[in-house]
Design a protein that fits this description.
This protein is mostly beta strands and 78 residues long. It has a single domain (14-77), classed as lpxc deacetylase, domain 1 (Ribosomal Protein S5, domain 2), CATH 3.30.230. It is 0% helix and 37% strand. It is built from no helices and seven strands. Strands 5-6-7 form a three-stranded antiparallel beta sheet, with no helix packed on it. Strands 1-2 form a two-stranded antiparallel sheet. The protein has a two-stranded antiparallel sheet with strand order 3-4. The radius of gyration is 14 Å and the shape is globular.
Length: 78
């Protein structure tokens, strides 16, 4: 049995702003189109160098009260 994975992207940037449920901190997320095989990545604009974290199951470091992923010492929380 073979598995074919189809890819999709969006055509334009779109943003959402909201207050974190557990932190109470206002946050903004912007979705941008990506090239083929890029995957989903989160870019921390509030940290010098704007490091990226790839959305990958191997990067999950905590699942209490949300999901935390980390890469190279940089984390994001949902």
């Amino acid at each position: 049995m073979s598995f074919i994975k189809f890819q999709r992207t969006i055509s334009n940037n779109t943003s959402c702003v909201g207050v974190g449920l557990h932190t109470g901190v206002e946050s903004k997320i912007t979705f941008k189109p990506a090239p083929d095989n890029f995957g989903i990545r989160f870019k921390r604009m509030d940290i010098e160098g704007c490091p990226e974290i790839r959305a990958d199951i191997d990067h999950v470091v905590d699942i209490s009260r949300g999901t935390t992923i980390a890469e190279n010492g940089v984390k994001i929380h949902t």
